[in-house]
Amino acid sequence: MIGGKIPTSRSRFKEAMAEMNIDSSMELLEKCFGLSLSDQYWVKDDSDIEWKDINFFENDFSEDMGNLLMGQIDYTDDLDIFSPDNSSDGNLKKKWKIINGTRYFLKGGNSFTNQEPFNEVVATKLYDRILDSEDYVPYALIQENGLYYSACPTMINTFEKLVSAYYID
Question: What's the predicted TM-score (pTM) here?
């Protein structure tokens, strides 16, 4: 499987796809070579393009798609969709962001109280007390446009793959 793909049930996704005149999340994923920040798989076309020149681990990417899906910007014809946000699975609002050279995964909440980001931080504080630092991924709170999001640095690098516990029997 190349990366994940955005489920149609994610908030604002269907509207964004209609505005961009894209028929499926797979079509959106293919426009970015299937690149993600959770694995190193990609779709290489007939061009001379190389992994080292386009992968999101080592190269900048646009935040437009993530900002669009988070409701932080409106669609425009010059929207840059070259982003790992096209391969982020799951229903919560989320996006990737580069902060001081580090790739961070930001997640919002779905509930009326936006509780989920705070839960991630509370869990981090608990893990900090009972686990070694290499045994968990720390989350912090980030505020953007008056809303709170949980944020963690990317969990892998160019030599690792993230496998969700959901896929393990």
Answer: 0.87
d(CA 32, CA 15): 20
Rounded CA Rg of the chain: 16
**Looking at residue 11, what is its pLDDT?**
82
**CATH number, domain with residue 46:** 3.30.200.120
Instruction: State the residue range of the domain holding 123.
Output: 13-167
Q: How many domains does the chain have?
A: 1
Helix, strand, or coil here: 135?
Answer: helix
pLDDT grade, residue 3 (50/70/90)?
A: low
Instruction: Tell me if 1 is assigned to some domain.
Output: no
Which amino acid belongs to residue 70?
A: M
Give me the DSSP letters along 6-70.
--TTSTTHHHHHHHHT---HHHHHHTTTT--SS-------SS---HHHH-TTTS---SHHHHHHT
Residue 87: closest CA among 100, 99, 101, 69:
69
* Residues 99-128: tens digit of each pLDDT: 999 999 999 988 778 899 999 999 999 999
CB 92 within 8 A of CB 106: no
Instruction: Detail the DSSP E strand segments found in 78-167.
Output: 94-99, 102-107, 140-144, 147-153
